[in-house]
Amino acid sequence: MIDLLIHLVLIILIPPLLPGVINRTKAAFAGRTGAPLLQPYYDLYRLLRKGTVFSRTTTWVFRAGPLVTLAATLAAALFIPLGNHAPPLSFNGDMLLFVYLLALGRFFTTAAALDTGSSFEGMGAAREVTFSCLAEPVLLITLLVLSRLSGSLSLAGILTHSSTTLWLASGASLILLVAGLFMVLLAENCRIPFDDPTTHLELTMIHEVLVLDHSGPAFGMITYGAALKLSILSALFLHVALPLRDADPYLDWLVFVISMILLAVVIGVVESCMARLRLTRVPQMLLAACVMAAFAMVLVVR
Amino acid sequence: MSSFADQLLVLVLLINILILGTHRARVAIRAIAVQGVVLGMMPLLIHPVQGHILLITLFVVLAKGVCIPWLLFGALSKIEFSEDLPPFLGYAGNVIAGAVATVMAFVFAARLPLAPHHQELLTVPAALATILAGFIALASRRKAINQVIGYLMLENGIFIFGLLLTEAMPLMVEAGALLDLIAGIFVMGIIINQIGREFSSIDTSRMTALREEE
Fold this sequence. Notes:
The complex is a heterodimer. In chain A, 71% of the residues lie in helices and 0% in strands. Chain A has helices at residues 2-13, 17-30, 39-49, 60-77, 94-115, 119-150, 155-161, 164-169, 171-188, 207-210, 216-241, 249-273, 282-301. Chain A is globular and about 55 Å long. Chain A binds chain B through residues 171-173, 175-176, 283-284, 287-288, 291-292, 294-295, 298-299, 302, and chain B through 3, 6-7, 10, 13-14, 17, 21, 91-92, 95-96, 98-99, 102-103, 106, 110, 122, 125.
């Protein structure tokens, strides 16, 4: 019961912290002070107080977009175990539901973008869908390999299975999975080698161009949903990459939160050290991630 | 010990894909040098240390890690063409072909009548996969220098196969193969320079048409 409460509180409170940490890391790398660590929370609060403007050309799809996206992402968050604890919801085969809940969210974001009829947003929607249909196989193959390794079909069993003994036994394929998952983590959340979240040039951005026409609370929901997705995929990544287990459940929660923040720092470092890829090179990178996941599968199934 | 060797072989397979997917000749040369060094260290890991295995390791690391990359970088700096010519299949096509070749190598190796203690190792599928990837690079690249890299990859694949036999193979055979390789790279380097001097382009696919250059 107490674990369930901590899970819910963490999943609601932690997401905006991660972009804050990433921005702070990037600022430190660039020699700036940077925005306060809690700036994303202030931004959300400010957005939620504002009014919303709707274009007359939009329909209900545009209004439903942010809501459905946030709801789907929140539902997906209920299936992912945090730390070493069972998630609130879990059944056999929920890994497929998890992947497609994220896909549903993306579908509604892009549908809302197309609904505005703006050419920029159509372009962004096309990019988002192209890249995500390359990132999705990586996620699915990774989950498939992990479920083969753990002999379980639910996310809870798959993700809490990996441990140091598993790393010693099949380290090669796990390294491949970790590398592939990290690329997916960056691509799905529009982080730097794939997309620059701070740019305001419509021609080069992907996620930001999708949400140009949203304002007020709707935009707040989108920002929060994006942060939530980042934290969900980070948790997934951490389960594979860092199988830290401890007997004490409260220490486990602490280790989990600290490792999430460390991962955000790592993402910030990666963003500071790399330039954005040319748009035509992005599919190649995702293809490489796909090939790595496929290799891992070959190594495990063999 | 052998599981560590297996992980190094996975690294070798990844370098194959990197070489197939990269569009920079310099990256490919560095990658092939790393692959050569990794492979050169392998005999030490899977066989008990002996005099002639140490010698082989030394020679292979020197030849593949230092000598050949140096020759290739030399050839690269002499030709002034740095334009990026996409391969016949495209980079994505190359990577996919490499991945398919790797999977086929695994399937095929599982059906080979191998000695029981070789069955579990990654050596045979990795060797086949590297040879196939070398073929793909050799056949689909346009620039002569990238074709040389494909040729090196092919040779690396044969070397992986040889790992199973290092104990039984005399030193002379290994040394002869290495000498052949270096002579081959020398000749290719000279030819690349010649191509660079004589023709306006180093696209080898354009050299199939025989006509006077004016």
